[in-house]
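Two quick folds needed for the group meeting slides. Do the first one here.
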Amino acid sequence: MTSSSTRSVTATLTLALALAACRTSAPVPPATAATPTPSAAAHESEQAAIEKARADSARYPYTAADVHFMSAMIGHHAQAILIAGWAPSHGASRSVQILCERIINEQGDEIRTMQQWLRDRRQPVPDAHTMGMKMSMNGMEHVMLMPGMLTDAQLAELDSARGARFDRLFLTDMIQHHRGAVSMVKDLFSTEGAGQDELVFKFASDVNVDQSTEIARMEKMLAALPPA
């Protein structure tokens, strides 16, 4: 065999072996998308929540009744926090003091939630110490009491009480106060178009349930007190 024939045969064998290697090698898996990092996934989740909130706001816009409810409930809560704060200095029983501590903590948090809701919507934001709702009549500003709120005479009577008498008056007055808040929720939900905003609906529903539950608890506490 000539040298040129030898080179031809060698080249042919080399090509055949290369083709066989290509056919028997494992297929290369297709490229896949990179798995999102935890921080990226959290960001995507947050963005999805923001978009959902925007969609809900467009579908269920807040109303003037919602603004009134949130504004009025701030003043309503403010009075509850005021009188609950008297418990330690007025000789309240331990059970009443525990109830008052819970009212102060829960309603303080709720006031901040309502203030933020109003602030986000560029509405006037009542402070946390005005007991009632400021109203303008005939060019003069007045503070109007919401349903169930104590009058000046009731506040003075409660402030003058001590010990068991304070317990009895406080429970009686706070039951009245809570019933007023429940009636405010009913008024909200009975107003056409109101209470559809997601946060307003949840907050009002929580007020209705929580304060109805506390009314029942306070009625039991009141019944367990010794006769006046």
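Then this one, please, same format:
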Amino acid sequence: MNDRSAIVTGAAAGIGRATGERLVAGGWRVLGIDRVDASIAGMTMLAGDAGDPSVLEAAIDACGERLDALVCSAGIPPSGPWDSREHWDEVIAVDLTAAYEALRTCWPALVGAGGSAVLVGSIVGPVEGSLRSPAYAAAKAGLEGLARSFAVIGAPDGVRVNVVAPGAIDTDFDERLLPADRRTDVPLGRMGTADEVAAVIGFLVDPAARYVTGAVWTVDGGRTILSAADAGSRRA
């Protein structure tokens, strides 16, 4: 079990960092990729673009070409303006194409280990639209189609691919629409934490989840099951 290795993109902060730290605590060897040059206890960090094949190949080499898990957490938040083609190109490149490139480049190593991949999606896109950033919504919706496709591709080799879809998570990534501990739009009444999302990712890459693939695990405190009418009554 201590020989398990993982690559985590976007590992310097937020959900990526929490995931890397959780895996390290579980005895994994973790190679983190981030554009920010960071030093995190227990992780080997590689500064670079998570969608760059040369960076990904260097990460695979550092793992010894055995890759038990790939977690694609790198991303940029929705901003806008919605009608900016430059914004569209940047978000699609970082939030969707980089995940495809990571899967494509890491695939032989994942097949060799019978490994697992988790893509960090969002409830924005598959469930909700975005006034600010159709690009973000399109990218996150696209991740689910990407994961399902690679789950089918990987099934004969025992490679599993899943998505976690967070809602409002208390990190620098999420805009503060309401106080973190008083979210009337969330049935559980608060924002989630990065570690709560990381716990789900940790399960999905573990052999305990070996019969789970092509699935989307929503981690949103029940936000997507709350009707607009009920949300309004909670604010009253």
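Slide caption for protein two: The chain has a mean pLDDT of 91.
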